[in-house]
Design brief:
The chain has about 350 residues and is mostly helical. It is about 75% helix and about 0% strand.
Length: about 350
C-alpha cells in the first residue's frame, strides 16, 4: 500500500505530473497497437522472396535472414566466415569476463595481449593453415568491434599522458599537449580519416606502404585521445590539493604521488565522462565507411544494393540500430554499476 501511494505521488502528485502522465499514456495507447501489429503480428520472419514479405503487410524481418552474412561479415570470404565469428565471440568473451571480474587483475594485461594476438591471427590468417585475408576484405560487425575496442585501448594511455602533460609545470610540455588536444578537438573525425587515408601516403616514401585499416585506426586513436584527455583532466582538477600534499608529506616522490594517489582518484571521478567518449567512439567507427572500409553501416548499405530487397531498408537499419544499441547500453549500465561500486555520487 505504501509503495502504491509512492507511485501515485510520483505520477499524479501535481497537476503538471498528472497531465504529463495522461499524455504519455494516451500517446502509448495510440502508438503501441499499430507498432506491435507492424513489427510483430503482421511481420514476416521466414519469407523467402520480397513478394511474400509485401503480402504479409507488416515488417519484413526476413531481409535480416537473407542478408545477414553481408551485414555481419562484409566481404570476408564465405568459406572463412567462422573466423570473424570466432573473433567476435573472443572479444565479447574477454570484455565480459574482465567486467565480470572472472579474470584476475594481474592477468588482465596478459589476457588482453593474448586475445589481441588471437583476434589478429583469426582475421589475417596466413599461418597454421589459415588462408590469408587482407584487411580491406574485413567488414561488418567484426571490423566495428576491432576498431572500437582497439581505439579505446590505445587511446586511454595516450589520453592519460596528455592530461598529465597539460597540467605539467614544464611550459614546453604543457604547450605541446594543449596544442595537440585543441587541434584534434577542433577538427571533425572525417577530416582526420581523409588525411590518414589519402594524404598520409603522399608524404611517405614510395616503398613504404601502411595498411589502410591501421591508418584509420591511428586517426581514431588520436581523435579519441584528445576528448578522453579532457575528461581525465576534469577528474584531475577534482582531486583536492590536500591529497597531494598529504602524500608528499609521507615521503612519496612527485611521480609516485601522481600515479598512486592523484591519478586513481581522478580516473574514479572521470568515469562518466570517459564512458561518454567510449560510447561516442563506438558509434563514430561508422565514419570509416567514408574512406572505403566496410564497417557495419556500409555493409548494410551494400546489402541493400539488391533491388529486390531495397524497399525493406527500414527493417535492415533497425536491425543495425539494435546492434549498435546493445554495446552502448552495456557500457552505460556497466559504468553506472562501477560508479555505484566505487561510491560515486553517494552522500
Amino acid at each position: 500500500m505504501r509503495a502504491f501511494a509512492g507511485l501515485w505521488r510520483r505520477f499524479f502528485g501535481s497537476l503538471g505530473n498528472s497531465l504529463l502522465t495522461l499524455g504519455v499514456l494516451a500517446f502509448g495507447v495510440l502508438l503501441l497497437p499499430p507498432l506491435l501489429r507492424w513489427a510483430v503480428i503482421d511481420a514476416s520472419f521466414t519469407a523467402r522472396t520480397p513478394l511474400e514479405c509485401r503480402a504479409a503487410g507488416g515488417a519484413c524481418w526476413a531481409i535480416v535472414h537473407e542478408k545477414y552474412r553481408l551485414i555481419l561479415f562484409g566481404r570476408f570470404p564465405y568459406a572463412e566466415e567462422w573466423r570473424p565469428l570466432a573473433a567476435m565471440l573472443l572479444i565479447v568473451g574477454l570484455i565480459g569476463s574482465a567486467c565480470g571480474g572472472l579474470i584476475p587483475r594481474r592477468a588482465l594485461h596478459l589476457a588482453g595481449l593474448l586475445g589481441a594476438a588471437a583476434v589478429a591471427l583469426l582475421m589475417w590468417g596466413g599461418v597454421f593453415g589459415l588462408a590469408h585475408v587482407e584487411s580491406t576484405n574485413w567488414g561488418g560487425l567484426p571490423l566495428t568491434l576491432i576498431l572500437s575496442v582497439s581505439g579505446m585501448t590505445m587511446a586511454f594511455p595516450l589520453a592519460v599522458a596528455l592530461a598529465l602533460g597539460r597540467r605539467s609545470r614544464l611550459q614546453l610540455v604543457s604547450a605541446l599537449c594543449i596544442a595537440f588536444i585543441e587541434l584534434l578537438r577542433g577538427v571533425p573525425l572525417v577530416s582526420l580519416l581523409f588525411m590518414a587515408s589519402f594524404m598520409l601516403p603522399l608524404f611517405m616514401p614510395g616503398h613504404v606502404q601502411i595498411d589502410e585499416l591501421l591508418r584509420a585506426l591511428i586517426a581514431i586513436v588520436l581523435f579519441s585521445s584528445a576528448y578522453l584527455a579532457e575528461a581525465i583532466r576534469g577528474g584531475l582538477q577534482g582531486v583536492p590539493a590536500t591529497q597531494e600534499e598529504a602524500a608528499r608529506s609521507l615521503g612519496l616522490s612527485r611521480t609516485r604521488t601522481t600515479f598512486l594517489v592523484v591519478l586513481p582518484q581522478a580516473l574514479r571521478s572521470a568515469i562518466p565522462g570517459m564512458v561518454n567518449v567510449f560510447i561516442a567512439l563506438f558509434k563514430d567507427t561508422s565514419l570509416v565507411g567514408i574512406v572505403g572500409l566496410m564497417d557495419l553501416l556500409l555493409a548494410t548499405k551494400q546489402a541493400l544494393g539488391d533491388p529486390a530487397w531495397r524497399s525493406f531498408a527500414l527493417e535492415a537499419y533497425l536491425f543495425v540500430a539494435a546492434l549498435y544499441f546493445g554495446p552502448c547500453y552495456f557500457m552505460s549500465r556497466y559504468s553506472q554499476a562501477l560508479e555505484h561500486k566505487l561510491g560515486l555520487g553517494d552522500a
